[in-house]
Amino acid sequence: MKHLEGKVAVITGAASGIGRELAAACAAQGMKLVLADVDRDGLSATKDPMPGGIAVHTAQCDVSSVEAVQRLADLAFEEFGNVHLLFNNAGVAALGPVWSATPEDWTWVLGVNLLGVVNGIRSFVPRMMAAGDEGHIVNTASAAGLTAVAGSGAYCASKHAVVALSECLLKDLQLAGSPLKVNVLCPSLVKTAIVDSSRHRPVHLAATNPDSAPFDQRVRAGMEASEVSAADVASMTIQAIHDDEFYILPHPAVRLRVEERLRNIIGDQHHHQPDGLLGSTDEP
Ligand SMILES: NC(=O)c1ccc[n+]([C@@H]2O[C@H](COP(=O)([O-])OP(=O)(O)OC[C@H]3O[C@@H](n4cnc5c(N)ncnc54)[C@H](O)[C@@H]3O)[C@@H](O)[C@H]2O)c1
After folding, report:
1. Which of 218, 95, 110 has the alpha carbon at shortest distance from 153?
2. What is the pTM of this model?
3. 144-162: pLDDT as tens digits
4. Which CATH architecture has domain 8-265?
């Protein structure tokens, strides 16, 4: 999609990190914005520094709620008449070995990371299709959606599902003859607040993996070492929308890990790479 000025972007998880930078990048393109998150103060902190003249609506919205995302779509279409870029970006992480991940870890992580994207697709895509304009659905997965990462079973499962869902969505849109496009964003570690994502964890899902601490520490260290910023990820995402590149891999080393995994799957290479965090690229 080449021309973004005056078009409408909806961004979930816009109160922090990658979502905040996507909001700034879309504003810089002259887009109208609907910014959604559970964190109302964080939404204000995203919106307030934006230059005057940008049309911005903020909405408190839990993406794991079917009804809340439906209300978000109602707001966006009522305010702006259409949506051209839908960023299903909100996400959370719960770390630790698969065997000690709690039922609440699974419910929370799959509810936000996977069903949040599903809810966005269900509430927005039919209306975007009916409008008939060009547009993109941009789903934030992760390098952890393309590879396997120790200490990250629930997170990886949710992100692999988002990659598969995005691939299916593209095929479904093509089959339906829709001009809508899809991108799936797969960053490795980027310094954001995701390692503290339990700050917004619902009380009824509070029981967390008792063995998460060492993995949390490794993610923090990996984020500090990351050479790719959330702003870099946002600008690469805008470029990928412009160029219509489906897979967005901001960290080049992730390509090697994907290649290695696919070689293992097809039996082309008989070794195994068990480590790395959130698709960490500390190994070449
Ligand atoms: N930071 C990384 O290293 C990294 C790497 C790969 C993928 N990602 C993905 O990027 C996306 C953005 O994460 P980030 O790194 O910017 O983290 P972040 O914690 O800085 O931002 C995530 C935002 O999502 C919001 N959120 C959490 N639960 C929500 C819910 N139920 N409904 C609505 N909003 C909710 C949070 O309030 C926060 O503002 C996530 O999907 C994450 O999985 C991050």
Report:
1. 95
2. 0.95
3. 999 999 999 999 999 999 9
4. 3-Layer(aba) Sandwich (3.40)
